[in-house]
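Incident review: delayed structure delivery

Summary: a single-chain prediction request sat in the queue longer than the usual turnaround. Root cause was a stuck worker, restarted by the on-call engineer. No data loss occurred. The affected request and its eventual output are reproduced below so the record is complete for anyone auditing the incident later.

Affected input:
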Amino acid sequence: SPSPAPSPTPTTAAVRLTGDGIDLPEKVATFGEAFEQVQPALVAALGEPSKDTGVVSSFSEYGTCPGSTLRVLEFGGGALRVLFGDAIGPGITMYQWSLAKQSADVPQASALVGDVTTYEFGVGDTLAELRAGVQGGAELTVNPGDEMFGPSFRLSDQSSGFFGYLSGTGETDTVTEVQAGEGCGE
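Output delivered after worker restart:
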């Protein structure tokens, strides 16, 4: 009997998480694009999601998110979360991605810090590494935080930029979350 054809192995190397969306081998998925267009390209590049919430209330375990409906696809056991909802356009559209933990199964964030230079970063990188990686092409702003929100950073590159949380504001403190797009509140 013929052996089954091997299924294509997803490759995270060809995927870039940018401040404007997600660059996938099949297409560039930008914030505001319909779920029906983005989901197949995500699955083709990253494999089946480890979790698909289906359509739920925008008030959920992910915080208080914009709009009234939310659908989240998680990859790498929740390391990468892609949020869709009725926040920025008709129907369910992509409005945020978030790196919530370290995983070799998902791509890193990719800042455009020069004409053709990109800087890959993610959860676990130190503040010193972040500062060094964006020199000469992007602006990094660190906020010490307050009682409600811990230390955070904003990275402004040639895209819409990134937002993230830090374990502290020292050079050896690390990135604990990175996101782009519309944020959810607590």
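Verification: The radius of gyration is 17 Å.
Action items: add queue-age alerting; document worker restart procedure.
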